[in-house]
Design brief:
Blueprint (H helix, E strand, L loop, with lengths): L8 H17 L4 H29 L1 E3 L5 E3 L5
Antiparallel strand pairs: 1-2
Amino acid sequence: MEEVKELSFEESLTNLEEIVKKLEVGDVPLDDAINEFTKAMNLVKICDDKLKHAEESITKLVKDNGEIVEFKIDE
């Protein structure tokens, strides 16, 4: 059984762009277009999840005592 590799954000985005280009041409049979659309929606979710995780990671700071605090810029 082949191990499924988790795609990076960049790999997911590249795959998504390729699917969009393929579907924009418009000569994809309906069944294939539906499959490609489903793959694209899964890739969108992967990208969205990775962006949310990155945002959560960069908005938290760890103080010297280990306390986690939200990062805020006072304007």
